Amino acid sequence: MPSYLPGRLSGLACTVFGLALLSACQSPKPPAPSLNTAALPTMERVALGANSCWFKSGDPEFKSYRLAPELNSFSGRPRILIVPRKSPEARPLAVVQAEGNPARLQAFGPLMNEPTGTRMAADIRRWAAGGQGCK
């Protein structure tokens, strides 16, 4: 056995021991932030998703509509309205609202019974659950 080998082995052992000791001293990863499931934060997520995916994206299915958010609700039911683009004061074609903690979502109106309504319901559920992006 060459004379330099015992020195190398002890140096390697010290290095391995030092790395093991260092990794044992590191703090664990902080937990991921939990999703706030109250009505207002839930509807904020839904409003942001709807605005970016349905309206700002230029989606042709929503070209004739406009988003009217009513998130500052004193009734405890923040909501968003989908209204005709050219008559925003008209009766809403769709209403999405939430209430409570955890939020209980409701989506209703004539637009929800159209073919677009199925897609809207899926998007709303995804955004309410914390999902992002457009499908």
Question: Can you describe this structure?
Answer:
This protein is α+β, with helices and mostly antiparallel strands and 135 residues long. Helix content is 39%, strand content 17%. It is built from three helices and four strands. It has helices at 4-25, 39-55, 115-128; strands at 65-70, 79-84, 94-99, 104-108. The protein has a four-stranded antiparallel β-sheet with strand order 1-2-3-4, covered by helices on one side. A hairpin with a 4-residue loop joins strand 3 and strand 4. The longest helix is centred in the N-terminal third of the chain and has 22 residues, at 4-25. The termini are far apart.
Short description:
With 135 residues, the chain is α+β, with helices and mostly antiparallel strands. It contains three helices and four strands.
Order of helices and strands: HHEEEEH
Largest sheet: 4 strands, antiparallel
Question: How much strand content do the residues show?
Answer: 15-25%
Would you tell me the overall average pLDDT? 85
Q: State the helical fraction.
A: 25-40%
| Order of the strands making up the biggest sheet | 1-2-3-4
Distance between the termini: 66 Å
Low-confidence segments, given as residue ranges, are: none
Please count the helical segments.
3
Radius of gyration over alpha carbons? 27 Å
Q: Structural class, judged by helices and strands?
A: alpha+beta
Number of strands: 4
Shape assignment:
globular
